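Quiz preparation item.
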């Protein structure tokens, strides 16, 4: 089955063609990063307007890259939850129109489950595995038992990890996108220069949760309190100290989850998976067996949507044209979706 996937949940406008849930024929992405850069963050209205302009050319390019014509598309899959409402609506409406005009079924796909699935498109791993999604919008650890079955063990209780990178970079004028800027600076800095606090949420339900609002506040508003005065204050040292505090929190929870569940296999997704220190910390950890897909499959893309869409279509069947977007997913904890 040849599935055409569409992703427009945030600021990437992406279309991909994937065969039978695994073979990527094309994976086209139009990034809006330059349009949002002057604002140091994603502007939702601008994002949805740009999706409106981009979705058709990206669709055409993706078909050309795949070397197929629209008549060879068997089904359409589209991210319809969670994400920015105005952006999701553009992709969903396009998918509905395409499904009607081509006379093929379509399915709505969950963005989180598709990130957790992305690893299967490159280096297929056996179920169950621990899936970690760390991006600008999401931070979570899950046990992935099947393509459409994930149990969320822990999430952020406030800001997403990437969002903290972006806010810190924005406040200190380090560059945009914040994660990339901080990663670059941190390689030249000393992580011991500042001793930032890391939330430790050990109680019951919060065992695998993380929190970034305290760390963000410390780095943004209370810098002087955490300066270790042996070291010179510099953007490099600030970046390295923040990065280590932010990433250690995730690695720490992940190791705990691995010990508790006995699952050593870990697949990482989301934009922050590109972080040099995170990759090193995971690959160097002798208790974990880690798979990180290539950057194109970690960040928002439509191949993961088309890939997971195949499973939605074959196990749950197609959606009807009344399908709506869901900016947030309720009942997020414990069992997902
Ligand atoms: O998955 P993604 O492309 O978009 C969504 O948020 O869904 O992730 C973008 C996030 C941004 O917050 C960006 O700052 C962060 O990923 N990021 C990084 C790095 N590259 C991107 N964070 C840390 N280190 C990086 N190298
Ligand atoms: Zn994402």
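Solution:
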């Amino acid at each position: 089955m040849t599935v055409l996937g569409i992703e427009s949940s945030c600021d990437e406008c992406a279309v991909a063609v994937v065969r039978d849930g695994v073979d990527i024929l094309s994976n086209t992405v139009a990034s809006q990063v330059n349009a949002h850069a002057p604002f140091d963050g994603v502007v939702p209205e601008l994002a949805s307007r740009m999706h409106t302009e981009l979705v058709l050319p990206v669709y055409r390019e993706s078909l050309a890259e795949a070397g197929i014509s629209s008549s060879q598309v068997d089904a359409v899959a589209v991210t319809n939850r969670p994400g920015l409402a105005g952006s999701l609506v553009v992709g969903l409406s396009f998918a509905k129109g395409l499904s009607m005009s081509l006379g093929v079924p379509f399915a709505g796909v969950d963005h989180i489950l598709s990130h957790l699935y992305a690893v299967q498109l490159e280096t297929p791993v056996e179920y169950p595995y621990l899936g970690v999604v760390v991006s600008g919008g999401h931070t979570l650890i899950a046990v992935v038992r099947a393509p459409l079955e994930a149990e969320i063990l822990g999430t952020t209780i406030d800001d997403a990890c990437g969002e903290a990178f972006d806010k810190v970079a924005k406040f200190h004028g380090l560059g945009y996108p914040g994660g990339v800027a901080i990663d670059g600076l941190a390689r030249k800095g000393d992580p011991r220069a500042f001793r930032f606090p890391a939330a430790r949420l050990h109680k019951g339900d919060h065992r695998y949760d993380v929190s970034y609002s305290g760390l963000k506040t410390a780095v943004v508003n209370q810098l002087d309190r955490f300066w270790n005065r042996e070291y010179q204050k510099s953007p490099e040292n600030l970046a390295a100290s923040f990065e280590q505090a932010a990433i250690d929190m995730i690695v720490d929870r992940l190791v705990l989850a691995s010990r508790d569940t006995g699952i050593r296999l870990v697949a990482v997704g989301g934009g922050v998976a590109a972080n040099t220190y995170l990759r090193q910390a995971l690959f160097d950890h002798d208790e974990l067996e880690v798979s990180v897909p290539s950057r194109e499959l970690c960040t928002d893309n439509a191949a993961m949507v088309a890939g997971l869409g195949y499973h939605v279509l074959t196990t749950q069947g197609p959606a009807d044209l009344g399908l709506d977007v869901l900016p947030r997913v309720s009942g997020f904890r414990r069992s997902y979706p």
